[in-house]
Specification:
alpha/beta, Rossmann fold, binds zinc ion
């Protein structure tokens, strides 16, 4: 049987981790460092993904305030902070709750451009359906963006590497809460075989410089550049 030429091409999948309001906007409960720059890069990557018809696997963290699933005090289920950043949400998508099941249609990525899986823990591989999708999906490269680098992104990347996947971390499109912990996490990922690549070298630069989603002065361009650059705690 002759294989169609399409299957011979490199197939890239975008892994989108925790791109939610609490982590990415200034008024969020745990806004990452340098959120404006990282959001702008994520927005550019998402525009490229739409143009290139790259499929996306997204994980969103939904923690409970109390009960059996203790987690950090952000991205709490049912709050606005848990909502996904608008431009990380594709039109043809399917969302799965954290229900412990493993089912999904065989033609998942023919029917949809994006799968959004809710997680109750930092490690996506603890959620059976996410584990199965990430283990079974066929792709030559897994491009990873999102946050936080030191927890959710790290668990995702190390889990993919353990499954012998080719992982590329988009180093300017991942965000962290703690600089030192993030540096250690990135070194750990590299040591296990992940490649760190600047998103601009992959998607090029574009006119999309505005963040669009965050209403803080910096994202809205109301802060002088000098002032913005001197404060790296955003
Ligand atoms: Zn902002």
């Amino acid at each position: 049987m002759i294989r169609p030429a399409l299957t011979l091409r490199r197939r890239r999948i975008l892994i989108d981790v925790g791109t939610q309001r609490d982590l990415f906007t200034a008024d969020g409960k745990a806004c990452i460092r340098n959120h404006r720059r990282i959001l702008a890069n994520i927005r550019r990557v998402m525009a490229w993904v739409r143009k290139e018809h790259i499929r996306v696997i997204s994980t969103v963290r939904l923690f409970e305030e109390d009960g059996i699933h203790h987690g950090p005090a952000y991205c709490l289920a049912g709050t606005e902070g848990a909502c996904k950043i608008r431009y990380t949400h594709l039109a043809r998508s399917v969302a799965y709750s954290s229900d412990g099941y493993t089912d999904f249609p065989r033609d998942l990525f023919e029917r949809y451009d994006q799968v959004i899986q809710e997680l109750r823990s930092e490690d996506p591989f603890e959620e059976p359906r996410a584990d199965r999708i990430l283990s079974e999906v066929k792709a030559t490269d897994f491009l990873v963006l999102g946050a936080p680098v030191e927890t959710s992104v790290k668990f995702m990347v190390l889990g993919l590497l353990m499954r012998r996947r080719n992982v590329i971390v988009l180093s300017d499109a991942v965000g962290s809460l703690e600089k030192h912990a993030a540096e250690i996490a990135l070194r750990q990922m590299q040591a296990k075989g992940a490649r760190l690549v600047d998103s601009k070298s992959l998607v090029g630069s574009s006119h999309l410089r505005k963040v669009g989603i965050c209403s803080c002065d910096r994202c809205q361009g109301r802060v002088l550049k000098v002032a913005a650059d001197s404060d790296c705690s955003d």
